[in-house]
Amino acid sequence: MFYIIIPAYNEEKTIGRVISGLFENGYNHVVVVDDGSTDGTAKEAERAGAVVLRHIINRGQGAALQTGDEYALAHEAEAVVHFDADGQFDAADVAPALAAMHVARAEMVMGSRFMDRRSLVPFSKKYFLLPIARVINFLFTGIWLSDAHNGFRILSKNALRKIKITQDGMAHNSDVVRQVKKHGLKFIEHPVLVVYREYGQGLGGGIKILWDLLFAKLT
Amino acid sequence: MYLIQIFLVLFFFFAILKVAGRYRASELSLSAAIAWTVFWLAAAVIVIAPNSTAYFAKIFGIGRGADLVVYLSLALIFFIIFRLMVKVEKLNKEITLLVRQMALKNKDLK
User: Fold this and answer.
1) Four-point Cα dihedral A112, A217, B89, A174, nearest 10
2) Is the ipTM here above 0.85?
3) CB contacts, 8 Å: A55 with chain B
4) Which residues of B touch A60 (CB under 8 A)?
């Protein structure tokens, strides 16, 4: 059984469509972790037919993902897919990524916007923010990836057991990559489409992530 | 005695009363209460006899007593801030654990 974990914070407008899209692609186990939303996200997610876990207060995307992961682990998931709630991912990307993971016998797949040319990434992100983010990720994890902070991820059951996300906020990406390396888990990158309707993490977000990583390292 | 000295000593006196009050209300441990009282008393001594710092400054090789007070205070403040930040982060993580437990338990009850 594959569990799709969707961390969601105030995404009532898109969550329904995202869930339907996943159902249409044949994924029956969709878990939405409502991270203390103040809008109707939980209701919309339930209406669309997903399992909804509710954080009563907002804890951050990393925290929401870890909650979803623990749920999946308790329900004997074979693998989990981390998927964004804002409708910027394509459900059709899941199957090829799962297949690639199987072929490569990998324990983790990380999505990348830059392995094919489908994603049109905003200029300042592509040529300024992301290169810096990739360098920072390399400094903190020792791994060079073609993308940084891509929310698309697949984790095998083994990876799920070994990796505990401790970064509650957006630094979870680097946190997961660091743990993958620490446990010597095999991982691959795979192209995913990201459609930009919102900018996402900007410079301020990036600085907060860098601070969270430094703080964790120093304490 | 300058006005500032009178103000400050009065302030320190009230601070000590506050410490005593918190200790009596069991919000402060005995060791913490003693530590803070000693701190405020030392502050009062420095304010009443500022030249007392000159003696210590000379031992440390610093020109002025006031400079010594500032250096020591800065070091202490940064140390305290560091401890607080670590404590806050720990609290944050504990809150997340609680919120997560509630989310997972409530799911099973439905």
Assistant:
1) 10
2) yes
3) 99-100, 102-103
4) 96
